[in-house]
DNA sequence: CTGGGGACGGGGCCC
DNA sequence: AGGGCCCCGTCCCCA
């Protein structure tokens, strides 16, 4: 499954966004453009978008700290522990349990890791580490998700939601054509379409590409056995889209 | 119709 | 915690 589809899409994905209709803070990030253009550049600091007070979670109203009392696992636990949380957080996938179960499970473990998440069994040396984990992952999961106010997408973590919201606000604007992008590096890639810069060269031929993904796809054309293979006829393709076309056309085997 | 290139989206990882 | 980058992917267009 493509990672882009880890979230539900409720709109026609084939439509490209109408950038001009989307509003939000803008930031111009390309030093190249800054140097090249006589146009006045106003680098605005990317600030949180002000959202209307509705019930869905957004980047600005997420219950980061403290959690609502009905969600907070804090009661009954020491609050003065330093935050020396253990290894990186990891989203669990087990079946949800109640908050009370969580508190019961968040009990003392071994010497190094004393607090355990009741949902994914991940352990932390401090209670605050456990709280941070639960806020960003497991509590979010048991509460379904963080929902975007601009669309109906849902995310299991705050960071993912924040990143997604940028796809609505599109804060990175090309000074040459006005096109807007969600992330600075997307804008940088776009600027190469203006400058003609192609920093990604094929080691097998003289071609160069502005986009690393396009080079990767191109490299497939040099391979005898390509990455995407038809299950029916074993024919291989350089791109998944070509494989899909092949399969949809009926392949060479009757279904 | 097929294969390939161009442009771009988005989640995850790393610093 | 946030930004940059990587990787994987899609869509559109054209030869």
From TrEMBL:
<comment type="similarity">
    <text>Belongs to the snail C2H2-type zinc-finger protein family.</text>
</comment>
<dbReference type="InterPro" id="IPR050527">
    <property type="entry name" value="Snail/Krueppel_Znf"/>
</dbReference>
<keyword id="KW-0217">Developmental protein</keyword>
<feature type="domain" description="C2H2-type">
    <location>
        <begin position="200"/>
        <end position="227"/>
    </location>
</feature>
<feature type="domain" description="C2H2-type">
    <location>
        <begin position="228"/>
        <end position="255"/>
    </location>
</feature>
<keyword id="KW-0862">Zinc</keyword>
<dbReference type="GO" id="GO:0005634">
    <property type="term" value="C:nucleus"/>
</dbReference>
<dbReference type="Pfam" id="PF00096">
    <property type="entry name" value="zf-C2H2"/>
</dbReference>
<feature type="region of interest" description="Disordered">
    <location>
        <begin position="77"/>
        <end position="109"/>
    </location>
</feature>
<dbReference type="GO" id="GO:0008270">
    <property type="term" value="F:zinc ion binding"/>
</dbReference>
<protein>
    <recommendedName>
        <fullName>Zinc finger protein SNAI2</fullName>
    </recommendedName>
</protein>
<dbReference type="GO" id="GO:0000978">
    <property type="term" value="F:RNA polymerase II cis-regulatory region sequence-specific DNA binding"/>
</dbReference>
<feature type="domain" description="C2H2-type">
    <location>
        <begin position="172"/>
        <end position="199"/>
    </location>
</feature>
<dbReference type="InterPro" id="IPR036236">
    <property type="entry name" value="Znf_C2H2_sf"/>
</dbReference>
<dbReference type="GO" id="GO:0000981">
    <property type="term" value="F:DNA-binding transcription factor activity, RNA polymerase II-specific"/>
</dbReference>
<keyword id="KW-0677">Repeat</keyword>
<feature type="compositionally biased region" description="Basic and acidic residues">
    <location>
        <begin position="86"/>
        <end position="109"/>
    </location>
</feature>
<keyword id="KW-0238">DNA-binding</keyword>
<keyword id="KW-0863">Zinc-finger</keyword>
<keyword id="KW-0479">Metal-binding</keyword>
<feature type="domain" description="C2H2-type">
    <location>
        <begin position="146"/>
        <end position="169"/>
    </location>
</feature>
<keyword id="KW-0539">Nucleus</keyword>
<keyword id="KW-0804">Transcription</keyword>
<keyword id="KW-0678">Repressor</keyword>
<dbReference type="InterPro" id="IPR013087">
    <property type="entry name" value="Znf_C2H2_type"/>
</dbReference>
<keyword id="KW-0805">Transcription regulation</keyword>
<feature type="domain" description="C2H2-type">
    <location>
        <begin position="115"/>
        <end position="142"/>
    </location>
</feature>
């Amino acid at each position: 499954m493509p990672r882009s589809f880890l979230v539900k899409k409720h709109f026609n994905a084939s439509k490209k966004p109408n950038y001009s209709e989307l509003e939000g803070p803008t930031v111009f990030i390309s030093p190249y453009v800054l140097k090249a253009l006589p146009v006045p550049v106003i680098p605005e600091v990317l600030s949180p978008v002000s959202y209307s007070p509705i019930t869905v979670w957004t980047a600005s109203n997420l219950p980061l700290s403290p959690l609502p009392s009905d969600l907070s696992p804090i009661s009954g636990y020491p609050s003065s522990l330093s935050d020396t949380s253990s290894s990186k957080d990891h989203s669990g996938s087990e079946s949800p349990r109640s908050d009370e179960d969580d508190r019961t499970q968040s009990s003392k473990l071994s010497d190094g890791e004393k607090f355990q998440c009741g949902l994914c069994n991940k352990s932390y040396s401090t209670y605050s580490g456990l709280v941070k984990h639960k806020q960003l992952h497991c509590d979010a999961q048991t509460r379904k998700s963080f929902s975007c106010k601009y669309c109906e997408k849902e995310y299991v973590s705050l960071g993912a939601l924040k990143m997604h919201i940028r796809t609505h606000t599109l804060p990175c604007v090309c000074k040459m054509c006005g096109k807007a992008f969600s992330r600075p590096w997307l804008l940088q890639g776009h600027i190469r379409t203006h400058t003609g810069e192609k920093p990604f060269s094929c080691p097998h031929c003289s071609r160069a590409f502005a986009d690393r993904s396009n080079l990767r796809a191109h490299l497939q054309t040099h391979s005898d056995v390509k990455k995407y293979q038809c299950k029916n006829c074993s024919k291989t393709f350089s791109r998944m889209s070509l494989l899909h076309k092949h399969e949809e056309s009926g392949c060479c085997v009757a279904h």
